UniProtKB/TrEMBL annotation:
GO terms for molecular function: carbon-nitrogen ligase activity, with glutamine as amido-N-donor. Gene3D superfamilies: 1.10.10.410, Uncharacterised protein YqeY/AIM41 PF09424, N-terminal domain (1.10.1510.10). It comes from Candidatus Ruthia endofausta. This is GatB/YqeY domain-containing protein. Pfam families: YqeY. InterPro entries: Asn/Gln_tRNA_amidoTrase-B-like, GatB_Yqey_C_2, YqeY/Aim41, YqeY/Aim41_N.
Length: 148
């Protein structure tokens, strides 16, 4: 079992003992998505795969929050934000903008990228280095701004 999944299960047990219903609901949701993916793919997820599940849930949560705000459903925004706080506990520490820019510049120099045609190579290399530590959409935008 992956360390991250074991940590999530341990946190679920702690939430049960503390009778923290909101945290318990969010953790059960995370474990449900992990279990669904394990069943669908007939594998046991490793830490990177569990992290990708958590990242996807964070992205979906942010999308839901923006849609609920547009619809004026503040009650649902509050619920989704509470769930997002719990989910974010399992994300690695996020890199600063300076660190992200430094990583981008290093990879550009390493492969000699000079135009948008190198975008795929850059994103592939950066995803392996920065995966989970920053939003790859932001990375993509930064690369585009460097080549425009």
């Amino acid at each position: 079992m992956s360390e991250l999944k074991a940590r999530i299960i341990a946190d679920m047990k702690s939430a049960m003992k503390a009778k923290d219903k909101a945290t318990l609901k969010a953790i059960r949701m995370i474990l449900g998505v992990i279990k669904q993916r394990e069943v669908d793919e007939r594998i046991e997820l490793d830490d990177m795969q569990v992290l990708s599940v958590v990242q996807k849930m964070v992205k979906q949560g942010k999308d839901s929050i923006s849609q609920f705000k547009e619809a004026g459903r503040i009650d649902l925004v509050n619920v989704e934000e509470a769930v997002l706080v719990v989910i974010n506990n399992y994300m690695p520490e996020q890199l600063s903008d300076v660190e992200v820019n430094a990583a981008i510049n290093k990879v550009i120099a390493d492969i000699g990228a000079s135009s948008m045609q190198d975008m795929g190579k850059l994103m592939g290399l950066l995803k392996s280095q920065l995966g989970g530590k920053t939003d790859m959409g932001v990375v993509s935008g930064l690369i585009r701004s460097k080549f425009s």
